[in-house]
Specification:
The chain is an alpha/beta fold. The protein has a domain at 4-46 and 62-80 and 239-321 and 464-524: FAD/NAD(P)-binding domain. The protein is built from 18 helices and 17 strands. β1, α1 (14-25) and β2 form a beta-alpha-beta unit. α1 packs parallel to α10 (243-254), α1 packs parallel to α18 and α8 (193-204) packs across α9 (216-223). Bound molecules: flavin-adenine dinucleotide (FAD). The site of flavin-adenine dinucleotide has 39 residues, from α1 and α17. Flavin-adenine dinucleotide (FAD) binds at residues 10-16, 33-36, 41-43, 57-60, 63, 264-265, 294-295, 299, 304, 329, 406, 456, 460-462, 467-468, 500-501, 507-509, 513.
């Protein structure tokens, strides 16, 4: 007789695995089914060329919450983060700025551009850290349904209101941060474009917005939410980003969880409004009392279920989720580290900058967005060349290196062309810009893997290639994510739950969807 599971988790992304690990630790019999041949979803290390182990999608770590790392004992299963020394931004005039975890060192760098900005910097960082602390608290709280009279929602609303009350007048400035453009927000603190652009860069990544668009100040906050150490809180995972799912899977399987790859779910099975299991593409049916989907909301509710089984307003909300992506990734194998014109080791104080922003002015970032608004890939894209092999040389053959280039904007759909026509040309343009800052880099390229949003959709099942399963804008956050009334990880189908990045608090490798969903599931078990 076929095995019956307590819970089936759809998708071995890091959130699905985290949910599975918590459920397994609590003694449930859990199966994870993943469509790809490897686990991790957008958090993977793959041997793209012989001897090169590449973080094909996500590439740097900061957001994973310490509680999850401790609860699941991830270091015991291979988790190791290497904090970054500094974030290096070269400018077109040959100058540069290095930002450090140590604010005093950063202040000295900022003073090269503005003494006033150097003085205000600790105030700005303290405010950002206060806001991040508040948001970190919110990360762990299940959003209430503000229209509900259920006891759990009323209790949750009180908890949220209490957290806000405790902030005092800081909440007004946090409201600015939640709603303003990153450009206007930074104008309140800084005068120098060079300082502003380093920060505004975070407000532009992964989102189909420019630094002057309202809502981008929150995107900045989302990217500084981590507190794992390193410059800006960021670091590289030893072994690439695939070490994240490997360590979570290590914990889950140690507690009896089964993980099946090459097992794509074709349908979520239901009976009388209640979930009963899943049917795989192969035709195999697997049964369980509970199913948790770690796939994105559009896949889960519009593809794996018949929309007739769902309330029409819910279906409409999921259809209207804004997932149109303009983020791209290009992975390179190179002979030598790029020689940045603006980098002088003795001045910066590190041997080599492993984490770099190419996006030299606020206007540069905004113009990159202007192109995308009209359906064109950016003429001059902004991007982050990161070199994990500087700190983790085992990822590439001896002496060779990997560069992860992540940036914007490359619209999912182009107005007057197709990505088949544009893919190589766009990658050439990215490398042309790179060459301006690091002469010789183009000659050093051995291989390149070009991933535009349609490629990210095809390979990783990200909706329209969206790296966060949907934009991180106020209309799609907290009790609105992924749909009003369903932000508590429940779904309209009984015992069908959701735990991926489409849920609160959204994308990034932070594990909260998986953590919070498992807590809600176990409460009711
Ligand atoms: C190019 C890129 C760069 C990024 N860079 C960073 C970064 O540096 N740092 C950071 O913190 N975040 C980064 N992100 C964002 C981060 O990677 C994602 O937000 C996060 O990994 C999503 O995790 P998840 O578990 O919610 O979903 P996913 O990783 O999307 O996992 C969902 C899983 O479900 C599987 N699935 C889907 N449908 C089915 C089905 N029918 N049957 C079975 N399985 C199915 C998918 O194959 C996938 O494995 C990046 C993302 C991308 C794409």
């Amino acid at each position: 007789m076929a095995t019956r599971y307590d819970a089936i988790v759809i998708g071995a992304g890091h959130n699905g695995l985290i949910c599975a690990a918590y459920l397994s630790k609590a003694g449930r019999k859990v199966l994870v089914v993943e469509r790809r041949s490897i686990i991790g979803g957008a958090t993977a290390t793959e041997e793209v060329w012989p001897g090169y182990r590449v973080s094909t999608a996500s590439y740097v770590m900061s957001m994973m919450q310490k509680k999850v790392i401790a609860d699941l004992e991830l270091p015991k299963y291979g988790w190791k983060m290497i904090p970054m020394d500094c974030l290096f931004t070269p400018f077109e005039d040959g100058r540069s700025i290095a930002m450090w975890g140590d604010h005093r060192k950063t202040q000295a760098e900022i003073a090269k551009f503005s003494k006033k900005d150097a003085e205000i910097y600790p105030v700005f960082e303290a405010f950002l850290e206060d806001s991040a602390k508040f948001v970190r608290k919110m990360l762990f709280m299940t959003p209430p349904n503000p229209t509900s009279r259920k006891l759990r929602d009323l209790k949750s609303m009180l908890q949220h209101a209490n957290a806000v009350r405790k902030l005092g007048t800081k909440i007004f400035r946090i409201a600015d941060l939640m709603t303003m453009s990153v450009s206007e927000f930074l104008d309140m603190y800084f005068e120098s474009d060079q300082i502003k652009v380093v920060k505004a860069y975070y407000g532009s990544i992964g989102t189909f917005l420019g630094p002057r668009s309202p809502g981008t100040a929150y995107v900045l906050l989302h990217h500084v939410m981590g507190d794992l150490g390193g410059a800006g809180g960021w670091g590289f995972m030893k072994g690439g980003m695939g070490a994240v799912p490997q360590s979570i899977a290590g914990c889950a399987t140690a507690h009896g969880c089964e993980i099946r790859t090459d097992a794509e779910v074709a349908q979520i099975l239901t009976e009388n409004g209640r979930v009963t299991g899943v049917a795989l593409q192969s035709g195999e049916e697997i049964f369980a009392n509970t199913v948790v989907t770690g796939a994105d909301a559009k896949t889960s509710f519009l593809k794996l279920l018949d929309s007739k089984q769902l309330p029409s307003d819910f279906v409409e909300a999921i259809q209207n989720l804004r997932t149109f992506s303009t983020a791209f990734k290009i992975n390179l194998a190179v002979e030598t580290p790029p020689a940045y014109k603006a980098f002088k080791a003795e001045q910066v104080g590190v041997d080599y900058p492993s984490y770099v922003h190419i996006g030299p002015t606020m206007e540069y970032l905004e113009r990159a967005y202007d192109d995308a608004k009209y359906g064109r890939p950016s003429t001059r894209p902004f991007f982050t060349p990161c070199m994990p092999t500087i700190v983790d040389p085992d990822l590439a053959p001896p002496g060779k290196h990997i560069i992860n280039i992540f940036g914007g904007h490359a619209p999912y759909e182009l107005k007057d062309a197709s990505w088949e026509q544009e893919r190589e040309k766009f990658a050439d343009r990215v490398l042309d810009v790179f060459e301006e800052f690091a002469p010789g880099v183009k000659d050093s390229v051995i291989e390149r893997q070009i991933l535009m949003p349609p490629d990210l959709e095809r390979i990783f099942a990200l909706p329209q290639g969206h790296i966060f399963h949907g934009e991180l804008s106020l209309d799609q956050l907290a009790f609105m994510r992924p749909a009003p009334g369903y932000a508590d990880y429940r779904t309209p189908i009984r015992n069908l739950w959701q735990c991926g990045s489409s849920t609160h608090p959204g994308g990034g490798v932070m594990g909260m969807g998986g953590h919070n969903a498992s807590r809600e599931i176990l409460k009711g078990w």
